[in-house]
Design a protein that fits this description.
The chain is an all-alpha fold. Helix content is 61%, strand content 0%.
Length: 344
């Protein structure tokens, strides 16, 4: 019996109802609904997800209505994996075929599966240029191309998307990211600045200035310019170490689908003496995204630093990294090389 069938056959109530984590799960569920609506390219106003009992049609709290997912959620520590749990539930319960292919592709890109996203997009005909969804369809291509590090193609698709719907702020932001990936930093900064100008003003008495800044600018759900590239610019300008650390933590949860943000975070850690933490993050990234030349070459540098003999620190992974670098013929030309703090 499928997990969804077991959920729908579950009666209201049950031992999950008294779990003190229930309200937290419910809050994350509804936040994920909003995020899913934005990520797909639809909108929170046009996408709702209400759980009802299959017999009485009475509304059900999420931790009761999808109790097996609640049980799974309690075992997950990272916020990005919890979001993935919810996103996969939305796709499974509604059926991916009920969404436009470009919308599913956007979700796959958000789940760190840009290759699968691109494969899906290439299996369907592109929407007609005069159709309502043409801009979002083009945008889905760009969103898959950016983490695949295909800058010219990403820029072409992002330009087509933004030209087809110049009023869509998310498509303008996508264009800025594609420009940034292509090395056109000034053009990208112009767009980031224009979007930042639309953010709500900072309150004078914000109890947590960094959290407030992040919510107003970088949160996918509430921010005016939720770009990992723009976020990297801002965190690099923070002089207070505690504020920078908080920003990196918030950014990791928000932009875990971005190899660019994750690489730069690992480089920051290596430069500040957190070498083993940097190694762990780069190793995880390489495992998820094996096409990343820069991540592979910098991970190999960390291997050399932490295990000069090459026989104690994850030797199988090291062999895989070395083999892939050799097979692909990768060199460090034109990339950012990791800087490791001496003595770390």
């Amino acid at each position: 019996m499928s997990i969804l069938r077991r959920i729908l056959n579950r009666k209201p109530g049950g031992d999950a109802g008294g779990d003190p984590l229930g309200p937290r799960f419910d809050a994350e569920f509804f936040r994920a609904v909003r995020r899913f609506a934005i990520v797909t390219g639809y909108s929170p106003e046009n996408f709702t997800f209400n759980l009802r009992h299959p017999e009485t049609q009475a509304p059900m709290a999420p931790h009761l209505g999808i109790a097996p997912y609640f049980d799974a959620w309690k075992k997950i520590r990272s916020p990005w994996d919890r979001v993935e749990l919810f996103f996969r539930y939305f796709l499974e319960s509604r059926g991916s075929e009920s969404f436009d292919p470009w919308a599913v592709a956007n979700v796959l890109s958000a789940l760190r599966l840009p290759r699968e996203a691109l494969d899906m997009l290439q299996r369907y005909e592109l929407s007609a240029p005069d159709s309502e969804c043409y801009a979002r369809h083009c945008g889905a291509f760009a969103r898959a191309m950016i983490p695949l590090i295909r800058p010219q193609e990403a820029l072409q698709w992002a330009q087509a998307a933004a030209a087809a719907d110049p009023e869509d702020a998310r498509l303008r932001l996508l264009l800025a990211d594609a420009l940034r990936l292509d090395g056109q930093c000034e053009e990208a900064t112009t767009i980031y600045s224009s979007l930042m100008a639309t953010a709500a003003p900072s309150p004078d008495d914000a109890p947590d200035p960094i959290a407030d800044l992040f919510a107003r600018l970088f949160s996918v759900e509430t921010g005016a310019a939720p770009s990992p590239f723009f976020a990297l610019d801002v965190v690099g300008s923070l002089e207070d170490a505690d504020q920078a650390a908080q920003f990196w933590q918030l950014g990791e949860a928000e932009f875990y689908d971005s190899p660019h943000f994750r690489m730069r975070q690992s480089y920051h850690m290596a430069a500040t003496g957190q070498t083993r933490e940097a190694f762990a993050k780069l190793a995880a990234l390489v495992g998820e995204m094996p096409w990343l030349r820069e991540a592979h070459l910098n991970l190999l540098q960390l291997f050399h630093h932490l295990d000069p003999a090459g026989d104690t620190l994850m030797p199988e992974l090291r062999q895989q990294v070395e083999q892939r670098i050799h097979t692909e013929g990768w060199t460090a030309e034109g990339m950012q090389q990791i800087e490791i703090r001496p003595g770390s």
